[in-house]
Amino acid sequence: MNYIGETIEHEILEKHILAGKIARKAQKKALELLKPGTKLLEIAQKIEDFIIKEKGFPAWPVNLSINQDAAHDTPAWQDERILGKEDLVKVDIGVSVEGYLADSAFSFNASGQWNKLIQTSEKALQTALETVKIGMLVGEIGKVIEAEIKSAGFNPVENLMGHGLGQYNQHVPPSIPNIAKIGGAKIEEEKAYAIEPFVSTGKGYVSEASGAEIFQENEVRNVRSAQARKILEHVIEKYQGLPFAERWIEQELKLGDFSRKTGLKELLQAKCIRAFPVLREQKGIYVAQSENSFIIHGGETIILVK
Which residues face 245 on adjacent strands? Predict the structure, then answer.
């Protein structure tokens, strides 16, 4: 961020706030779309299109992570999966306004079976947001989140964390844990943060699944094939360092399955891009997530998505 003295520039703050307003509208749009029997691909695309219509840009592909999948699941190109009535879906939406971000997530289950789990994640988030103050150690935020979740009989996901938000960078230090930790960084004024409690019916630990649909520019290097070069040039210009979906590449470049997949594979091998595998709890476990972003400005905590 840019500063005037020790105060965030007014126009930068306003861009964060605008991103938050668009994210909130996108959440409301998502709730209209989350009907059992609807294709996940349709839901994600319509939310992303809505963000663009509202003069924002998707800061990453809309995540629709189901049941034991906690994060990083976005529909594939021509994905045929549908939302089931019993599914517990985490809807993670990010909005960019000239690179200044708002990060948000909520959980939804049409059957009502997982209301307590969802409400616990929401309460943990709200309690944490009410607690944050300048100089507070991030480990103390984790302590508040953990206590709220465990009092409801669930476990926080210990290896998923909140984080800072930078310009065109969705994850910057510090990490904000969902469990109590000693020490760590202090919350500072005029900086953007995201808090995201994940609540599990299991032990509270996720692992990477095989495969990925979300990628991000990592390092610009020379690559051999024309399709890899075309994808890399497009990624650099269009996304400016923010994550993107494989389906976006197909929609925008129309390379075809073989060229798209071999191009992405070459870029991964050259470490020009990195992948974000789905983060998954154990089979049969359910996970809920709630997330919001904030900036402490002039001594006031400004909640971005409201």
Answer: 214
pLDDT tens, 95-152?
A: 999 999 999 999 999 999 999 999 999 999 999 999 999 999 999 999 999 999 999 9
Q: Is 79 a catalytic residue?
A: no
Any catalytic annotation for residue 92?
yes
Q: What are the residue boundaries of the structural domains of the chain, listed by start?
A: 3-206+281-303, 209-278
Question: Is 146 part of the annotated catalytic residue set?
Answer: no
Which residue in 33, 34, 51, 136 sits closest to 93, CA to CA?
Answer: 51
| Choice among 69, 140, 158, 196 that is catalytic | 196
Quote the CA–CA distance of 285 and 65 in Å, as a whole number: 13
- Out of 171, 189, 234, 297, the active site residue is 171
Active-site option among 69, 73, 92, 158: 92
Residue 87, Cβ neighbours under 10 Å: how many?
21
Among the listed residues 73, 163, 250, 281, the single catalytic one is 163
Domain range 3-206+281-303, CATH architecture = Alpha-Beta Complex (3.90)
Please confirm, yes or no, whether 291 is among the known catalytic residues.
Answer: yes
Which residue has 């988030």 as its token pair?
Answer: 125
Coil/strand/helix, residue 57: strand
Is pTM beyond 0.90 here?
Answer: yes
Residues 48, 73, 103, 122: which is the catalytic one? 103
Q: Answer yes or no: are the C-beta atoms of 108 and 122 closer than 8 Å.
A: no
